[in-house]
Design a protein that fits this description.
Low-confidence stretches: none
Oligomer: single chain
Strand order of the largest sheet: 1-2-3-4-5-6-7-8
CATH class: Alpha Beta
Structural class: alpha/beta
Order of helices and strands: HEHHEHEHEHEHHEHEHEH
CATH architecture: Alpha-Beta Barrel
Mean pLDDT: 91
Bound molecules: iron/sulfur cluster
CATH topology: TIM Barrel
Number of helices: 11
Helix content: 25-40%
Number of domains: 1
Largest sheet: 8 strands, mixed
Shape: globular
Distance between the termini: 29 Å
């Protein structure tokens, strides 16, 4: 299936953008990125700027969300203990000032991969002491002890996405739970972490439902927000209900700031880690 994107969605690439150096580096170190796994439309531009969201704990997921391009595997390989150090090596080689680490969901592991996340944070800190670290975590099935393992490693930002409004959760992310995701964020914010979350628009949600989700996120202590256009990876995935115009994203940004979010990225091309460093600095993005 080829989606015809509206003109406003087409982002010009910088001259010479192809990310070849990053791709070769990641290949040599045996690392994955969510940029590739999720077929992110911004990956060429981001890699040109040496920005990448590292995907740890393998490249196959024990869940099968209806919006996600990452392959499903009920029994993925065990975590690679050398992966955190190689990730830190890649981040240093790329000269990153802000490192984003995310993962597939590993419901097969007793701690959901939380110790592996903590190890990645510590390796990055040791290798790049001046860099900030953002982790985009799964819900660890609501296991607060697993979440505490990650929080103990002191990431600068703890990100966990709601992805969509409450009504659409069962059809969009059937193994997840809206209230459980909110409790993950509430727990992180309560522990002093800067909590971040995001939604994709254009999945069939209504305006009152989006407003309710934003209020729920603020009530959970979330201060950083991303809103972007949903794109279906294939015809077998959840369909795009509509393309949300840029002006509407602008209204959501204004509304979110009025609700008290400290920084908001809201535009069609925004993804969870898009311009993550600027978002953390509080300027909003793009
Ligand atoms: S849990 Fe995350 S990686 Fe796994 S299918 Fe859902 S969105 Fe994709």
């Amino acid at each position: 299936m080829r989606q015809r994107l509206p003109n406003w969605f087409r982002v010009p690439l910088p001259p010479g953008a192809e990310g070849g150096r990053v791709k070769r580096l990641l290949g040599r170190l045996g690392l994955h990125t969510v940029c590739e796994g999720a077929k992110c439309p911004n990956r060429s531009a981001c890699w040109h700027d040496s920005a990448a969201a590292f995907l740890i704990l393998g490249d196959a997921c024990t869940r099968d969300c209806r919006f996600c391009a990452i392959p499903h595997d009920a029994h993925p390989a065990p975590p690679d203990p050398g992966e955190p150090a190689r990730l830190a090596e890649a981040a240093a080689a790329m000269g990153l000032r802000h490192v984003v680490v995310t993962s597939v969901t590993r419901d097969d592991l007793p701690d959901g991969g939380a110790a592996h996340f903590a190890s990645a944070i510590r390796e990055i800190r040791a290798r790049l002491p001046g860099a900030t670290v953002e982790v985009l975590i799964p819900d660890f099935q609501g296991d607060s002890e697993a979440l505490d393992l990650v929080l103990a490693a002191k990431p600068d930002i703890l990100n966990h996405n709601l992805e969509t409004v409450e009504r659409l959760q069962p059809s969009v992310r059937p193994q997840a739970d809206y209230r459980r995701s909110l409790s993950v964020l509430r727990h992180a914010a309560g522990a002093g972490a800067r909590a971040k979350s995001g939604l994709m628009l254009g999945m069939g949600e209504t305006e009152p439902e989006v407003s309710a989700a934003l209020r729920d996120l603020r009530a959970a202590g979330v201060s950083l927000l991303t809103l972007g256009q949903y794109l279906a990876p294939s015809a077998a995935h959840h369909p795009v209900a509509r393309f949300v115009p840029p002006a509407e994203f602008g209204r959501w940004r204004d509304g979110a700031l009025a609700l008290g979010f400290a920084s908001v990225a809201s535009a069609p091309q925004v993804r969870s880690s898009y311009h993550a460093e600027e978002l953390m600095a509080g300027g909003g993005a793009p």
